[in-house]
């Protein structure tokens, strides 16, 4: 009897990758719109420039490598990297910042290792960390959300925004719109009680449960992440583990608001890039752990590292650093958490012990 030749049920083709990437981009729309509402049109400019740079760099490298350009561009992976990098960068940052970040994300972190599926590190976070370390002033110049601006203030319009981005206007112009982020304001606290700090900072006075503007940005990315969970783009293990460990650490070191207290769990969950990181960054299937048990360990460790850097490190936010550090550890986690091959009754460690005893 002839056997039917059939591909394995777990095999995925370009069509599946394309649909997944399109779904991820769709899920970022609520967060992008919320960012634009609170921080101005600079977010859209970031996205347009990052998309153009990432696609051009990807096509150029593929051409040099003599790979089919159209085939690989159609998987939307470069566009996903561009979107994640674009929303992570401060609005109205110079165009060359976006170009350098795109170059490292696509040219170095992705294509240098062989392209999609071979990159050991999250490309968008590599580009972001290179920029954060190299250009700290430009990367920390976040505009204040519109909800805390006075009646005489307003964020730059399209003309002023383009002038800032392309260098026709001095960056000093943006200084009148910038302000501390919630995590930065809490980190730079100089001995004030939490209630006094909240009363002295507009970013907290106009907030409902975290930081003005940032709380709703994180809620929007949370909704997008729940949509991805509903579509089964990834499992719940890594995001929930990250948020649980981050919240647990915050709860331990939060004493109700003394002058030595850490920020509350709500502030950690709904400020900075927490929800973006939990649902759009650490869930990268290429650079994260593979098994469900491994994803729990992977996400839990990321949450702990985020809190440690936020509380005692030099940076107010730490999602990118935590992700890259755990990208290093993902193969190690997989080695000890991947399930045994079907039909095998002994673990690899037990087999090694038997082989050693036989040699003796």
Brief overview:
The protein is mostly helical. It has 20 helices and no strands. It is found in: Cell inner membrane.
Structure overview:
This protein is mainly α and 360 residues long. The chain folds into 2 domains: 16-178, no CATH class; 186-336, no CATH class. Helices cover 62% and strands 0% of the residues. It has 20 helices and no strands. The chain has helices at 14-27, 29-39, 42-64, 69-73, 77-88, 95-108, 123-134, 136-139, 158-165, 172-175, 182-187, 194-200, 202-205, 214-230, 237-252, 265-269, 274-281, 292-312, 319-337, 348-359. Helix 3 (42-64) packs antiparallel against helix 5. It starts with 13 loop residues before the first helix and ends with a helix. Mean pLDDT is 87; it is low at 1-13.
Q: Which structural class best describes the helix and strand composition?
A: mainly alpha
Low-confidence blocks of residues: 1-13
Number of domains: 2
Terminal CA distance reads: 48 Å
**Main sheet: strands, sense, barrel:** none
Number of helices: 20
Give a count of the beta strands, DSSP E runs of length 2 or more.
0
Tell me the strand percentage band. under 5%
Based on Cα principal axes, name the global outline: globular
What is the helix content? 55-70%
Strand/helix succession: HHHHHHHHHHHHHHHHHHHH
State Rg: 22 Å
Mean pLDDT: 87
Q: Which key terms come to mind for this protein?
A:
disordered N terminus, transmembrane helix, 0% strand, mainly alpha, 360 residues
């Amino acid at each position: 009897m002839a056997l039917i030749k059939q591909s394995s049920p777990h095999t995925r083709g370009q069509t599946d990758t394309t649909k997944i990437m399109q779904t991820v981009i769709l899920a970022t729309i609520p967060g992008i719109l919320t960012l634009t509402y609170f921080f101005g049109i600079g977010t859209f400019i970031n996205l347009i420039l990052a998309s153009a740079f990432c696609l051009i760099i990807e096509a150029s490298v593929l051409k040099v490598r003599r790979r089919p350009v159209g085939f690989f561009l159609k998987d939307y992976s470069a566009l996903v990297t561009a979107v994640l990098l674009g929303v992570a960068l401060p609005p109205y940052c110079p165009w060359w910042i976006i170009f350098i970040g795109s170059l490292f994300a696509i040219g170095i972190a992705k294509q240098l290792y062989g392209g999609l599926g071979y990159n050991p590190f999250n490309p968008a976070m590599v580009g972001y960390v290179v920029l954060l370390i190299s250009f700290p002033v430009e990367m920390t110049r976040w505009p204040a959300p519109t909800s805390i601006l006075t009646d005489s203030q307003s964020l730059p319009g399209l003309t002023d925004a383009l002038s800032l981005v392309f260098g026709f206007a001095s960056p000093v112009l943006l200084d009148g719109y910038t302000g501390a982020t919630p995590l930065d304001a809490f980190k730079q606290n100089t001995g004030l009680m939490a209630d006094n700090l909240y009363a002295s900072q507009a970013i907290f006075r106009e907030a409902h449960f975290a930081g003005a503007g940032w709380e709703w940005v994180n809620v929007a990315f949370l909704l997008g992440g729940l949509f991805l969970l509903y579509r089964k783009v990834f499992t719940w293990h890594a995001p929930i583990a990250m948020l649980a460990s981050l919240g647990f650490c915050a709860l331990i070191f939060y004493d109700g608001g003394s002058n030595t207290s850490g920020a509350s769990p709500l502030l950690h969950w709904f400020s900075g890039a927490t929800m973006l990181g939990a649902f759009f960054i650490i869930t990268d299937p290429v650079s994260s752990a593979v098994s469900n048990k491994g994803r729990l360990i992977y996400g839990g460790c990321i949450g702990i590292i985020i809190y440690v850097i936020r509380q005692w490190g030099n940076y107010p936010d730490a999602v990118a650093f935590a992700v890259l550090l755990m990208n290093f550890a993902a193969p190690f986690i997989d080695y000890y958490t991947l399930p045994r091959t079907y039909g095998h009754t002994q673990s690899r460690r037990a087999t090694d012990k038997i082989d050693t005893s036989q040699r003796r």
